[in-house]
Write a structure and sequence with these properties.
The complex is a heterodimer. Chain A contains 10 helices and 5 strands; from the N terminus they run αααααααααββββαβ. By secondary structure, chain A is of the alpha+beta class. In chain A, strands 4-3-2-1-5 form a 5-stranded antiparallel β-sheet. In chain A, β2 and β3 form a beta hairpin. The radius of gyration of chain A is 31 Å and the shape is elongated. Chain B is α/β, with parallel strands linked by helices. Chain B folds into 2 domains: 2-112, 3-Layer(aba) Sandwich (Pyruvate Kinase, Chain: A, domain 1), CATH 3.40.1380; 118-267, DNA integrity scanning protein, DisA, N-terminal domain (YojJ-like (1, 3-Layer(aba) Sandwich). Chain B has helices at residues 2-12, 25-32, 61-74, 111-116, 122-138, 154-159, 181-188, 225-236; strands spanning 17-21, 37-41, 51-53, 83-88, 97-102, 147-151, 161-163, 194-197, 203-210, 240-244, 251-255, 258-263. In chain B, the strands form 2 sheets. In chain B, strands 7-9-8-6-10-11-12 form a 7-stranded mixed β-sheet, sandwiched between helices. In chain B, β11 and β12 form a beta hairpin. The longest helix of chain B is centred in the middle third of the chain and has 17 residues, at 122-138. The two termini of chain B are 37 Å apart. Classes of the chains: A alpha+beta, B alpha/beta. Chains A and B meet through β2 of A and α6 of B.
């Protein structure tokens, strides 16, 4: 950016530089408006306004007479305006303390991205928690309400981390915390879902190759009967008075005896 | 005017419960204060305490009421001697109909039982009925078709039947309710034989020739071999059979060897 200003200044005399600065300001204003309109139509075309509807962030914005789409468009327009003002100031050589302003110029895009990430994180986190609670709606268990908020705050946390990283704040401790959290989650999930994962892997094989199908008489793990149902996790086998529901990893481990 | 009020008042006197069919929110809340309210709807939007789910859109009000009351009886919300007031929307979207009825008024047809207490999952039976209804509505290339679906207890049904030809659904994992399945079933419906569907809705086979013993199966006279086979197979196994008649275009459901439900696809 400073280069453009430098170039303009070598091209024109001092008086013209002021005029050019004013022109740059005007162009910036028009460009800002165009960006505002462009972002707005693009976001509306992508139906972002419908996607974010109902999230806490959007509702808060509406209380202040804003909308999420409007805010995003405004933010990008502001970015362009501020950029134009800086270029104009530099062209007119109104600032002598070069260092400070150039530093600020470099900082501006990062500030912009940080703001974007925060908004995105708030909206996505809220939306994800809504989606999860919608999925869990049929499960009538009070503790289950913990899960959506867990998802929400995890996303908030990651968004905050990215934003802080953009601003150059030292986030190492927070990253370590995130790593510990992710590892714990992965480890516990692996431990908890071990049987389901094994049954699922075995079930994949059984479904793809179908060594036995519905209606066959088989003996698995000492349970003899007619196969009624095979799904990813379990196989249902039924004889006259009992129905065995056998996890698929046991089917593979004990082998299958087909009875003709 | 007073006469009208008297007539309406007699409808609502000494009620034991109110049965609401797909009610609006405020109506449900208002009635809840001093009445025992049972909601009958296709979706439990009100999170009602007493709720009967409608599996298909019964177009006729009498069918809807019958299903709702059988469901309420089955779940023991009401007893046979309870006086019920049914409020429903017959023509528009608003409540326009009030019917007063004793819960034990009609002999139980087992319609509720068919959907809820069958071996197969309720959603599967509903999907199959919908497929049959749609097939009956459109037919195969404009010509009426017949079809026979045997739902649930697939292992036993497979052992009591034999293939007429190669099974097109072998090694496939197609379930009823999958988006493409209606088209597939429509294409295969020109084949002879029955479709066998498992408890969880997997289409196990087409082209099956059912061989149950038809002994002692009592179905209305005049129905053909397809219905006889359907009745017989449900008596021999725990399956439910859903038949689309080629001659009169009606969809009928059999369970335990008996005709339980009769629907006209044209009315949907």
């Amino acid at each position: 950016m400073a280069d453009i200003a430098e170039l303009l200044r070598t091209l024109f005399s001092e008086e013209t530089a002021v005029t050019v600065a004013i022109i740059v300001l005007l162009v910036g204003a028009v460009a800002g408006y165009l960006v505002w309109r462009g972002t707005r139509t693009l976001l509306l075309r992508l139906e972002v306004d419908e996607a974010v509807e109902g999230t806490v962030f959007d509702r808060t914005m509406r209380n202040f007479g804003f909308s999420t789409v409007g805010l995003l468009a405004l933010l990008s327009a502001m970015f362009v305006y501020v950029l134009a003002v800086f270029i104009a100031l530099q062209v007119a050589q109104l600032m002598n303390t070069q260092m400070f302003w150039t530093r600020l110029m470099e900082y501006l895009p990062r500030l912009f991205i940080a703001a974007l990430v925060v908004i995105l994180g708030l909206v996505v986190g809220d939306k994800a928690s809504l989606a999860v609670s919608e999925r869990l709606k049929s499960i009538k268990l009070p503790e289950v309400t913990l899960l959506p908020s867990l998802v929400k705050y995890s996303i908030f946390y990651v968004a905050a981390l990215v934003a802080l990283g953009q601003l150059g704040v030292a986030t190492t401790a927070l990253v370590v915390l995130l790593a510990v959290y992710a590892f714990g989650l992965l480890f516990l999930a692996g431990l908890a879902f071990r049987d389901l994962l094994r049954a699922g892997a075995a079930g994949m094989y059984l479904l793809l190759s179908e060594p036995y199908s519905i209606g066959d008489e088989v003996e698995i793990d000492g349970n003899r009967g007619i196969v009624q149902e095979i799904d990813v996790f379990v196989t249902h086998i039924e004889n006259e008075d009992t129905e065995f529901i056998i996890p698929n990893q046991r089917v593979l481990r004990s082998g299958i005896t087909r009875i003709r | 005017m007073t006469d009208i009020d008297e007539v309406l008042g007699s409808l609502s006197a000494d009620l034991d419960a109110v049965v609401l069919f797909s009610p609006g929110a405020d109506l449900y809340e208002r009635l809840l204060d001093d009445q025992l309210v049972i909601v009958v709807s296709d979706e439990d939007e009100r999170a009602a305490e007493r709720f009967v789910e409608l599996p298909v859109e019964f177009s006729a009000l009498s069918d809807r009421i019958r299903f709702g009351i059988e469901g309420a009886l089955e779940q023991e919300y009401v007893t046979e001697n309870d006086q019920l007031l049914c409020l429903a929307a017959t023509y528009g979207d608003d409540m326009d109909t009030a019917v007063r009825i004793r819960a034990g008024e009609f002999t139980e047809s087992g319609v509720y039982d068919l959907f809820v207490n069958s071996r197969a999952e309720p959603g599967v039976i509903r999907d199959v009925v919908e497929v049959a209804v749609e097939l009956g509505k459109k037919g195969q290339k404009g010509k009426p078709v017949g079809a026979l679906f045997v739902v649930g207890d697939a292992g036993k049904v497979m052992n009591k039947s034999r293939p007429l030809s190669y099974n097109p659904f072998e090694k496939s994992h197609v379930h009823v309710g999958d988006p493409i399945v209606n088209v597939m079933l429509k294409e295969f419906s020109r084949l002879d034989g029955a479709f066998v569907i498992s408890d969880a809705g997997k289409i196990v086979s087409a082209y099956r020739y059912l061989e149950p013993s038809a002994e002692g199966v009592d179905i209305p006279k005049g129905l053909g071999a397809r219905h006889m086979a359907a009745g017989a197979v449900t008596r021999d196994t725990n399956a439910t059979a859903i038949v689309l008649s080629e001659s009169d275009g009606l969809v009928r459901a059999f369970k335990g060897g008996e005709l339980i439900l009769e629907l006209d696809p044209e009315e949907y």
